[in-house]
Amino acid sequence: MQLPKPSAGGLLRATSPLDPAEPLWKRVPTRDHEGRPLSDFMMLIPRLGRRPADQLRRTLHEINAVLTQYRHAVVFADMNLRLNVLWVTVRPIPGICLELPAALKTRVPEAMLVAQRVQ
To answer: What is the value of pTM for the model shown?
Structure first.
């Protein structure tokens, strides 16, 4: 799923499961309209794509609600149900890469922020 411009029905829209999607590196914006670099984060939601349709719909609704709440910060979002991964690209706002995943985890407790281990 991609995050289009805000609409009355919410931010997430379903893309056709029959159409092969371009790789993220081709679709994800890296700079805003003023040329500033954007940030991204990834969250893993185990077994999301294998859940019954009603549970899947509820979880996607919760994700959409959070992304809508943070629409001022979110530039792009992609939910890959094959990999059970949510990719979110955000504007350069201090702390947003922790605040937004925390808000998502509150609504979807099984969601896990994917991060590099600091050594």
So the answer is: 0.81
